[in-house]
Amino acid sequence: MQDNPLNQLDILGQSMWVDYIRRDLIASGELRRLIEEDGLRGMTSNPSIFEKAIADYSEAIRRDGKYAKAYCNRGVAYAMQAQLDRALPDLNKALSLNPKYSKALYMRGLVYTQQGLNDKALADFTKALEINAANDKVYYFRGILYYKLGRQDQALADFHQALKINPKYLEA
User: Fold this and answer.
1) What DSSP element (H or E) covers 42?
2) Does the model's pTM come out above 0.70?
């Protein structure tokens, strides 16, 4: 839209960026609108948010060294900052405290995927689904992994299952 003053930033050699990433921004179509109508050119997540989360979860762990959720969430914060070498020990600790913690299995599967440890990732995704078969995100990411491994039939089945659970899951 030419009438939108945000699009005129481009004339000045500037562009609009959003300093937050949220799933609902994508799912609602708002991200597409921001790109098409408002000239959005980039997105970032504020690293200070993750640094604060890491500090808070570290304090929770200091107070209670058996708090699996704190280890898992600190591992997630490390992973979001691409600090996989720090994320993995926290996710492992969460799982040693609670072996049926499906979120920790799912997140460790994502870390393993990033590290190219596909067999380990696949095992974690599958175990997470054995614990919680209603997690559309795990089906989706396992489907992506199956696809990368050339197992298209299994990938398609997982994408279908993700959509069956959540018909609004646009990525699947």
Assistant:
1) strand 40-43
2) yes
